[in-house]
Amino acid sequence: MVRRRRTIAGMSLAVVRSRSLVGFEAPEVAVEVHLANGLPSFTLVGLAETEVKESRERVRAALLHSGLGFPHNRRVTVNLAPADLPKESGRFDLPMAIGILAASGVIDAARLDGIEFAGELSLAGDLRPIRGALALGLALRRAGGARTLVLPAESAAAAAQVGTLDIRGARHLAEVVQSLLPGDEGLALPRAAPAAATSLVPGPDLSDVRGQAAAKRALEIAAAGAHALLLVGPPGTGKSMLAQRLAPLLPPMDEEEALASAALLGLAGAAADAVAFGRRPVRAPHHSASAVALVGGGSPPRPGEISLAHGGVLFLDELPEFSRSALEALREPLEVGAITIARAARRATFPASFQFVAAMNPCPCGWLGAPARGGRACRCTPDAIARYQSRLSGPLLDRIDLQVEVLAVPPEELLGLPDGEPSAVVAARVAAARERQLGRQGVPNARLDPAGVDALAVEPAATQFLVQAAARLGWSSRRVHRTLKVARTIADLAGADRVAVIHVAEALQYGRVLAGR
After folding, report:
1. Looking at the DSSP assignment, which residues form a beta bridge with residue 48?
2. 253 Cβ partners below 8 Å, 6+ apart?
3. Structural Rg of the chain based on CA atoms
4. Within this chain, do residues 320 and 232 fall inside the same structural domain, yes or no?
5. Does residue 472 fall inside a structural domain?
6. What does 182-237 look like in DSSP terms, one character per residue?
7. Nearest to 310 by CA among 358, 359, 349, 273
8. Per-residue pLDDT reduced to its tens digit, 196-231
């Protein structure tokens, strides 16, 4: 929205609405343009980063090359309010140019009510895509969606994924100005159509995995209840193969999840149409990734791998090889489904509700527990094994609901085994169990808070059995609660209304599998 231009003794003021980016949020920014008599200058204030300050030269050149002129004989002051909100990138080029034209009287300010602008300008006046366009659309919808949002054409296609919004796209500054000149009522720019989503390609199928019945069962439970999963076993037993088949078992993303996932990818600079709605993202960073790469950071803060996996799967192979700081940074998002990045100048929160799956060897050489064939027997000392496994802290392991051993299958048995169940069959059971959970409590079992766990229908015998087992194993209260959540998921897969002893007994089998951990 642009307020009516006010003129007082040779001075004029126009206010154009735009939006900044602070983490996943896009707060409103008022671009105030003031023209006054005096020594010609172009001053920009309002806690602007370097790329925003450089907008002065881009805006000046874009206006001149578009044949719109620039008030060289006036003192131009642009204020980005609120003053204490950091502003970054070239997204304020377009609102600044529109504000200068409105303050100069080229554009009738009354035609600009209810419009927001964002876009970077080239020196020739072309509109270039901006980062985080979908996040701007989501923020506008949260604010009521009453305004029209004008963006560069490519960015408008991304923001148009948010339904019910009036998104307009343009390729040149002159197009925007021409659409605002006197003539027909309304904004004469074409409405943006949503970016075409990439086609869904079938993922790897669970039927490719032969044997490993216990690991495949754990995979199904993890998918049904959104539980974190750790696969432990020697090299070549199929840990990575199993982890790669988790995403196809998950239910399709709903609109809110798809929009949030695509918006986070946009904040990271990924192409707007890189995600098909309904496809859950899968992120598998290398074990050399730093804590910042995993959780996000930088200036301005950008999402890390855990946020880019929001709504999908985060797979960490060779888990103990990640740095200790990177692993410990996973504890908060695994618990609350979000990550807050705090810096001296700003604070940003990103969604990080992902399905966590990890794989690791049981010892440094990897052959602990494997058949002693071909000289591959484990020769690690007990101290070396303990040091290797202790790279995973107790609090982190407490947050991994399912821990299962993936044993080596002898070649003569492997070749004779039939194909496993197709992913589609398992996914149907997962979807039915997930529907039961959402209908009962509104969230998957893994996301239940303590009050939700206490409200679960558990048979008295099952409660007593769990309490005795926990006392014998020395489990923490968090571990007890997580085991009860797993048992509830097993009951949901079986279609049972109450958690019975048999469900708790199976859940206990997926406790810690690391020796002495």
Report:
1. 87
2. 261, 277, 278, 279, 280, 311
3. 28
4. yes
5. no
6. SSSSS--SPBPPPPPPPPPPP---GGG--S-HHHHHHHHHHHHHT--EEEE--TTS
7. 349
8. 655 556 678 998 888 888 999 999 999 999 999 999
Distance from the first to the final alpha carbon of the chain: 60
φ, ψ dihedrals at 347, nearest 5°:
-140, 135
- Dist CA 90 CA 29 (whole Å): 14
Residues 157 and 249 in one domain: no
Distance from C-alpha of 305 to C-alpha of 441, rounded to nearest angstrom: 29
**What's the number of domains the chain is made of?**
2
**Amino acid identity, position 380:** C
* 3-state helix/strand/coil string of 273-322: CCCCCCCCCEECCCCCCCHHHHHEECCCCEECHHHHCCCCEEEECCHHHC
Q: How far apart are CA 314 and CA 307, in angstroms?
A: 9
H or E element that contains 302: strand 302-303
Range of the domain at 30: 6-180
Displacement of CA 229 from its chain's centroid (Å):
20
Q: What is the pLDDT of residue 274?
A: 42
The pLDDT assigned to 195 comes to: 67
As a whole number of angstroms, the distance between CA 359 and CA 232 comes to: 6
Question: 249: how many CB neighbours lie within 10 A of its CB?
Answer: 24
Highest mean pLDDT among 259-263, 276-280, 320-324, 513-517: 320-324
| Spatial distance between the Cα atoms of 307 and 329, rounded to a whole number of angstroms | 12
Q: How confident is the model at residue 297 (pLDDT cuts 50, 70, 90)?
A: confident
SS3 label, residue 304:
coil
Q: List the one residue out of 273, 242, 111 whose CA is nearest residue 178.
A: 111
3 state SS of 73: coil
Q: What is the mean pLDDT of residues 497-517?
A: 85
Q: Which of 132, 134, 63, 64 is nearest to 93 (CA)?
A: 63
Residues 236 and 331 reside in one and the same domain: yes
Tokens 């949503």 belong to residue? 194
Distance of CA 139 to the CA centre of its chain: 16
Is 340 found in the same domain as 275?
A: yes
Domain end residue (candidates: 180, 197, 217) = 180
Q: Answer yes or no: do 249 and 392 share one domain.
A: yes
